[in-house]
Design a protein that fits this description.
about 450 residues; mainly beta; Immunoglobulin-like; six-stranded mixed β-sheet; globular; binds CU-O-CU linkage; binds copper (II) ion
Length: about 450
């Protein structure tokens, strides 16, 4: 069987359990302008889905079938990747692996069931360091059939921008300096596409806050002064509610928080980002209106219903060690790139592959078998490592997630069942790292 036959076959065998059909929605990519910085500053030219950054907040119910037609009016090719969704391989939006790029003026219909509830997102998987930095991303929310009652369900898409004094995007995407260090970290952080001075609440409210880190490279460490938000899900998947004093979120990652507004009417409380200790800043203020509290005592925060994920058999699992290497201040760091590999700075098990030029498969996994991957960070940098098409447990605790943030020189063990056939990307979600070597292909067959 050649590769094309294999792909169409695998699409066939995965053909839908019938999800409740939803009408076809459209996502149109184009160039627009948006007031990112706000009052007194010029608008910024951005790339967007349906004219806004972030793109439309897509909401579905668990088990429904998503159908979205993407129209590309940008001057470049693109694809859409549905980050964190366990979908058929042909819908994964990886150019040259699962589909041809969507050409300028082209269209593509994405259609798949949504097996898991949770907070997900969508973004291009082609030319990502530029396309995401220009504003292409949006929230994809899959609601539980029986969601816990809240007063409001709010999404914060966090992104950061590198802007000049006229609020124009600095167009040095993927430059070697960023690529070989921490990635493109911007100078302006926005919430839902604008600098947000304050987030208004009413005393007594219970708010489900869904945070999405859509930044190319920035890691957040959020502290809610005067509050004790409960973390109820990571990357869309439930965990035992627990107080989170400082929420660390790497690029691509999501967290659901339950925020009980126990402050006094008229009070204000900072949300600060202290991840980079020397460069802490105030993200926004939680501002209470003057109305008296709508409730004075809060029910305990319930645990969300688990998603239907196959549980790996740790005793039988086959183990693989995957080493992430390269970058400056480590072994072999060179600003021009690695010896003989100009423009590449990072490796997976010693290999560096330019964005989506994968000829070789890193690992062949048996459909239905359990695996433990030992992920080793052999660099002086942080890397949020993401696997497509699957959800894994981070050992030893065992919470489910689709990405894990590796600190410099740290390691992690993840376990999962390779139950989704196809070729899947395993990569760092710092987009400048992904594009310069830190991405590999894993085949489940
Ligand atoms: Cu959100 Cu392969 O990525
Ligand atoms: Cu990385």
């Amino acid at each position: 069987m050649n590769r094309r036959q294999f792909l169409s076959l695998s699409t066939l065998t995965l053909a839908p359990r019938v999800g409740a059909a939803t009408p076809i929605r459209k996502l149109s990519l184009g160039i627009g302008r948006q007031a990112l910085v706000g009052a007194g500053h010029p608008d910024t030219a951005v790339w967007s889905y349906n004219g806004t950054v972030p793109g439309p907040e897509l909401r579905f119910k668990q088990g429904e079938r998503l159908r979205i037609e993407v129209e590309n009016a940008l001057p470049v090719e693109t694809t859409v990747h549905w980050h964190g969704i366990r979908l058929p391989n042909a819908m994964d939006g990886v150019p040259g692996v699962t589909q041809k790029p969507i050409s300028r003026g082209g269209r593509f219909l994405y259609e798949f069931d949504l097996p898991d509830a949770g907070t997900f997102w969508y973004h291009p998987h082609l030319g990502s360091p530029e396309q995401v930095a220009r504003g292409l991303y949006g929230a994809l929310i899959v609601e539980e059939r029986n969601a816990p009652p809240v007063d409001r369900d709010v999404v914060w898409v966090l992104s950061d921008w590198r802007l000049d004094r006229e609020a124009r995007i600095v167009e040095n995407f993927g430059n070697p300096m960023d690529a070989s260090h921490a990635g493109r970290i911007g100078n302006t952080v926005t919430v839902n596409g604008a600098i947000l001075e304050s987030f208004s609440v009413r005393a007594g409210e219970r708010i489900r806050l869904r945070l999405i880190n859509a930044s190319n490279a920035r890691i957040y460490g959020l502290e809610f002064e005067g509050h004790e938000p409960q973390l109820i899900a990571l990357d869309g998947h439930p965990l035992e509610p627990r107080a989170s004093a400082r929420l660390v979120l790497g690029p691509g990652m999501r967290a659901d928080l339950m925020l009980d507004c126990k402050g006094n009417p008229g009070s204000a409380h900072r949300v600060i980002d202290t991840f980079y200790r020397q460069r802490a800043y105030e993200l926004l203020k939680v501002e209470y209106g003057t109305q008296r509290a709508s409730r004075t005592s809060f029910e305990p925060v319930p645990r969300l219903a688990a998603n239907p994920i196959s549980v790996p058999d740790l005793a039988k699992a086959e183990r693989h060690r995957i080493v992430f290497g390269g970058g400056m201040m480590g072994r072999g760091g060179m600003m021009g790139g690695m010896p003989g590999r100009p423009g590449l700075f990072w490796t997976v098990n010693g290999n560096a592959v330019p964005e989506h030029a994968h000829q070789e498969v890193l690992l062949k996994l048996k459909h239905g078998a359990s695996y433990v991957f030992e992920l080793v960070n052999d660099t002086a940098w942080h890397h949020p490592i993401h696997l497509h098409g699957h959800v894994f447990r981070v050992l030893p605790g065992g919470h489910w997630t689709d990405s894990v943030l590796l600190d410099p020189d740290a390691r992690a063990e993840i376990a999962f069942v390779a139950d989704n056939p196809g070729d899947w990307m395993l990569h760092c979600h710092v987009l400048e790292h992904q594009a310069t070597g830190m991405m590999a292909l894993v085949r489940v067959a």
